[in-house]
Every structure is written in structure tokens, then in C-alpha cells.
Write a structure and sequence with these properties.
This protein is an alpha+beta fold and 246 residues long. It has a single domain, classed as VTC, catalytic tunnel domain (mRNA Triphosphatase Cet1, Chain A). The chain is 25% helix and 38% strand. It has an eight-stranded antiparallel beta barrel. The relative contact order is 0.21.
Length: 246
């Protein structure tokens, strides 16, 4: 059903997407039931194009997160540090591309640095470590702590520098186990400067879907480590919301 609906959109290629990379941006996130996604996509198609990867409109992504043994990045987020980092490999499964990425949250903006790698094992070699050091990552004992996979729909605005993504079929992988976020869509609006005049704001507001703070990494750590093994006070409200959607 989603594929058929997305075929009504005008496609945009990966090459064209480079014009709206938005590596320095404002992010606004929303979560809602996947049952609402077709209705939302139907209303957005007048103002957006859809990213096509060789004809695939719902490509798969894989993310491999690095952190320290004491989960330094996770706890920085939990402490609400305004200046914090995230380190990950992002694998674009369908286009067979992998990037090492550093996301830096500061003053309400997200700055992303990345470098393409030929690295199917997702390990930090000397070149990768040099890149991380230049990106101001000083933790030495980084290890793989979590992997997730999901499908993503990416929309690009016709008349503004703006992208919207919709992630679903989310699975977390850790120590051989799999944890899923059933029925959930994580939507993210990426803008050069915050504008609530974007059509997606209006469409979601009409459905009483409000912006919320959400981190796939942090929620994945909580879900895979378990509530008895990780500090999660900051995320209680979002966990309740997830349970309600599920």
C-alpha cells in the first residue's frame, strides 16, 4: 500500500539529494502509529518529492552505534548536555554505501560530519580514528554497543531547503537478540532554520501529533539493556508514549 501511494510522488535521485544534504540543521521529531502513515503521505505529496534508490522508494538502512563501556554518549544525552556527540556507521543497504558519522548537538542545532568508508565490518581503523579525532571525539575505548535496522521514506520539499524522513520496521540487535518497535513511525523534519509553516507541521498538528524529543540510540539502549540495568528517568514519558502507540 505504501509503495503504491509513493508512486504518486515525483521521484528525486540520490545525486539530486546532494543539493539538500542539510548537514547543519534544525531537527524536529514526531512519533505516531504506522496506521496513520498512509493518510499523512497522501496529504504531503502536493509539496514534496520522494527519494528513489534505483526505483526503490522504501530503502533499508543499518546503523551501528559506538560508545564507551560505561555508555558515555548515552549518559551525556540522559544528563541533557546541550553540547553532546553521537558516533555511528550508517549503511545504506540498497545503494551499498557506508559512512562513518559524527553528530554534534549544540545550541539547538545538529551538525553532522561524515566520511564514506569501504568497511563492511564497521570497525574503527586508523583512518577512522583520525577522522573522529578531527571531529573532536576524544574517547579512546569506543566499541560497538548497538545495531539497528529500519526502512525509511525520505521526502524533499519542492520549494524550500527541507527534508522529512519516516522510519519504521525498526529492529535493534544486541548480543544476538532482536528487539522491535512494533507499529511505530519516527518522523523527522530537517530544516536549515526552524519554520512551523512547513506542510508537515500542519498535517501532523491536525492529527494531534506533536513534536517530541526522541533518540533511536537511547531508546534502543534502554530496550536492549532493560529497565533494571540502565538509568532512564529522562525517558519515562517517551517510553509511556511508545507503549501507548504499541
Amino acid at each position: 500500500m505504501l509503495e503504491k501511494l509513493l508512486q504518486k510522488y515525483r521521484p528525486i535521485s540520490l545525486q539530486e539529494m546532494n543539493q539538500v544534504r542539510l548537514l547543519d540543521r534544525v531537527e524536529t521529531k514526531f512519533i505516531f502509529s504506522i496506521k496513520q502513515l498512509p493518510m499523512i503521505l497522501e496529504q504531503l505529496r502536493v509539496d514534496y518529492k520522494v527519494m528513489s534508490v534505483d526505483g526503490n522508494l522504501i530503502p533499508q538502512y543499518k546503523t551501528v552505534y559506538y560508545d564507551t563501556d560505561n555508555l558515555f554518549f548515552y549518559h551525556e544525552h540522559h544528563r541533557k548536555r546541550k553540547n553532546r556527540y553521537k558516533v555511528r556507521f550508517r549503511n545504506y543497504v540498497d545503494s551499498d554505501m557506508t559512512f562513518l558519522e559524527v553528530k554534534h548537538k549544540k545550541k539547538g542545532r545538529m551538525e553532522k560530519q561524515r566520511v564514506e568508508v569501504e568497511n563492511e565490518e564497521f570497525f574503527l581503523d586508523e583512518e577512522n580514528k583520525k577522522f573522529l579525532k578531527e571531529a573532536n571525539i576524544n574517547q579512546e575505548d569506543l566499541k560497538i554497543k548497538l545495531t539497528n535496522t529500519y526502512n525509511r521514506i525520505t521526502l524533499v520539499a519542492n520549494h524550500s531547503v527541507e527534508r522529512a524522513t519516516f522510519d519504521f520496521n525498526i529492529q535493534y540487535h544486541r548480543d544476538g537478540g532482536i528487539t522491535t518497535l512494533d507499529n511505530l513511525v519516527i518522523a523527522e523534519l530537517k530544516q536549515a532554520t526552524l519554520s512551523r509553516e512547513a506542510l508537515i507541521f500542519k498535517v501532523l498538528r491536525n492529527l494531534q501529533i506533536r513534536p517530541c524529543r526522541f533518540s533511536k540510540y537511547c531508546i534502543g539502549i534502554i530496550k536492549t539493556y532493560g529497565l533494571d540495568n540502565i538509568k532512564y528517568n529522562r525517558f519515562k514519558k517517551i517510553l509511556l508514549k511508545l507503549n501507548k502507540i504499541a
